[in-house]
Amino acid sequence: MLHIYCPHCAEYREEEEFRPKGEAHIARQVAPESTSDEEWGDYLFFRKNPRGLHHEQWYHAAGCRKFFNVTRNTVSYEILETYKVGHKPSVTQQASAGRSSSKGAAK
Ligand SMILES: [Zn+2]
Description:
- The chain is an alpha+beta fold.
- It has a single domain (3-106), classed as Folate-binding fold (2-Layer Sandwich), CATH 3.30.2270.10.
- It has two helices and six strands.
- It has helices at 37-45, 93-106, and strands at residues 3-6, 11-14, 19-23, 53-59, 67-73, 79-84.
- A four-stranded antiparallel sheet has the order 3-4-5-6, with no helix packed on it. A two-stranded antiparallel ribbon has the order 1-2.
- The radius of gyration is 16 Å and the shape is globular.
- The two termini are 27 Å apart.
- Zinc ion binds next to loops.
């Protein structure tokens, strides 16, 4: 069982309390009436499905009932960080590349 850190409750809770809600950091269209059908379709329906680091939105359904973001490795299921919506992730693809090479060097 995973224990996920909720940045609002400031404590680790069991994964059954949480619900994944898909990709994070999707910017709402500023002017939908002047957006092409293709751009609108991309905004509504198409999401990244990366192998590796992924920024996701999660919901603490059986807790504080607030949304927050998770940076997760989709290969290992490791959760690298959680942070409040509106904040930027500290773990990014570039930072992770540096991290994994330093981990590799330690082995
Ligand atoms: Zn919470």
